[in-house]
Amino acid sequence: MRVLVTGASGNVGRFVVKELQQLGEEVVVAGTNKQKLIGIFGSDVEAVTLDFTSPDTFKEAIKNIDRVFLMRPPHLGKVKDMYPFIDHLSEQSLQLVVFLSLMGVSRNPFPPHYRIEKYIEQKCLPYTHVRPGFFMQNISGVHAEEIKQQNKVFVPAGNSETSFIDARDIGLTIAKMLHQPEKHHDKAYTLTGKEALTYNQVADILSDVTGKDIVYDKPSMLAYRKYYIEERQLDPTYVTVTMMLYLMTRLGTAKPVTADFSEITGKEPTSFKQFALDHVAAFK
Ligand SMILES: NC(=O)c1ccc[n+]([C@@H]2O[C@H](COP(=O)([O-])OP(=O)(O)OC[C@H]3O[C@@H](n4cnc5c(N)ncnc54)[C@H](OP(=O)(O)O)[C@@H]3O)[C@@H](O)[C@H]2O)c1
């Protein structure tokens, strides 16, 4: 049987696909934009259209599938947008649904991931909740523009620390779980990198790797909001959600370091320095 990877074009999904293929699994990649998926994975991998907000796409996506990687697209504002697909999954005979959740949700009911985890459990699906910390790819993705153009890291996290994890490591862990579903039934794991760093340390590593003088700007929440909405023209709802996450970060919630990644994969997590070296072009 085959594994369905939702959000296959995303930061994590693309590495789930790659690692599952390395393990010899047959993968079906899903997203709202089939042409984008074919562009990324080629025509040898089966691509299906799946839109969580369009139930008429569900049946085809789940055909001959017995395991699922499930993620929540960040822009889907309402938690309930995810419920119809989860309902559909609960009517299938599945071995495992691995849900991409968020670090700390067991103690924090506010992020949507908390309610999605609970909904999956209520539906009696065989689940694994994967709760990662902040992705290193946030730095090479949404925050790269200021690093590249203005030599500054522009994140409202104060002096707090973050145990960043590489999305490549998350993808590897999730593929291992889907490959051996019986080992991970009804469990939750928190995935982090090997160390917690301040954004000053992030800026120092980026300076070292790029040869530029990159500093941490430490903006206030309001300055961050104004800049990201007015200058970068990002969706205000998305900016508000990230402000909430950086507020939690300031309170210390993003700094714990766990051993779950190493216990599952037998490997050391990727260091931020290695990540920066591998993605140096994003910062220059
Ligand atoms: N960034 C972090 O630091 C962090 C940390 C912990 C947890 N998380 C969680 O990780 C998740 C995001 O994962 P990611 O970064 O891998 O994703 P991403 O890069 O933001 O990609 C979003 C994916 O969702 C798909 N998608 C968009 N709308 C869809 C719809 N209506 N129906 C089905 N698929 C849809 C997109 O595919 P198409 O373009 O083909 O539609 C794309 O593959 C979020 O839930 C976030 O809260 C993030």
From TrEMBL:
It holds the Pfam family NmrA. It comes from the Bacteria. Residues 2-218 form the NmrA-like domain. PANTHER family: PRESTALK A DIFFERENTIATION PROTEIN A, PTHR43162. This is NAD(P)-dependent oxidoreductase. It comes from Halolactibacillus alkaliphilus. The lineage of its organism: Bacteria, Bacillati, Bacillota, Bacilli, Bacillales.
